[in-house]
Specification:
binds zinc ion, five-stranded mixed beta sheet
Amino acid sequence: MKSSYQHTIKKTCVLEGTSLHSGIYSKVKLHPAPANTGIKFKRIDSDLPLNQRIIDALICNVKSSQLCTSIENEFGLRVSTIEHLMAALHAIGIDNLLIDIDNDEMPILDGSSLQYCLALEKVGLKKLKAKRKFLNILKPIIVKRDDAFIKILPNNQLSIDYTINYPGTAVGNQNIAIESLNEHSFKNLLSDCRTFTFETELEKLKTNGIIKGGSLDNAVVFGENEPLNSDGLKFYNEPVRHKALDAIGDLYLTGSHVLAHIEAYCAGHSLTHLAIREIFSDDNNWNLITIDEQSDYKMLPGELSVNSINL
Ligand SMILES: [Zn+2]
């Protein structure tokens, strides 16, 4: 069970590297932030006034869902490929962070959340005095596109059951189910699972300039029968584990730790974003709650204002 209090990190940590889609080199500095800040990115390369460089990591700022999650503020400043960091923050339990970035795309690192997890673990977490807000799902949310779907169902913790199906490929049909998604299960089961693609897709993506920074160092590339990466796979079902990682990252765009059971089939960023918008389309679908640790994690109606979610 997650702590009922908000957390940040004890001190600044830095990560840098090439980005997957644009191929640019970018550097990010993760700074501690006070309670109720949320997760904020700041474009330090921009000439705009300081207050216009901030981009909140919230669903209202999601402008593109193609192959990655991009957020953009009202002044046109964007940060792309935030989902692997967001997954680590959601799972580890970091509520407040200011992220300086000197470009418009996050470094892809090894294509997973591992480096973020290690960096956050190294600097350590700091418990804050404010209570954490949890997003409690009150009604089942189901979003479909052709055969693909994502269901977000009421639950007293975050759990996930994800299936992908690429018939006739080396990936095939894969499933991962995790009953309790927390810091430990995320670290052991998902954090090092890399993004993936197929050799047959690679030329098309490269020709279209969609993955200028892609290489075997930051993605699993599947040939006809097996991965081309010399180090093989982290798990036999590494691809579906990565899809679950992406979903956990995207769900943190709600601005809160999510209490729900997620069931997904062949979904992706855009379907997850649609499902989050569907949650917030009706106030009867959700509420924000705090959890009282003293009474055996009994949930209490939140003293938090719904306005704080900044839709
Ligand atoms: Zn991903």
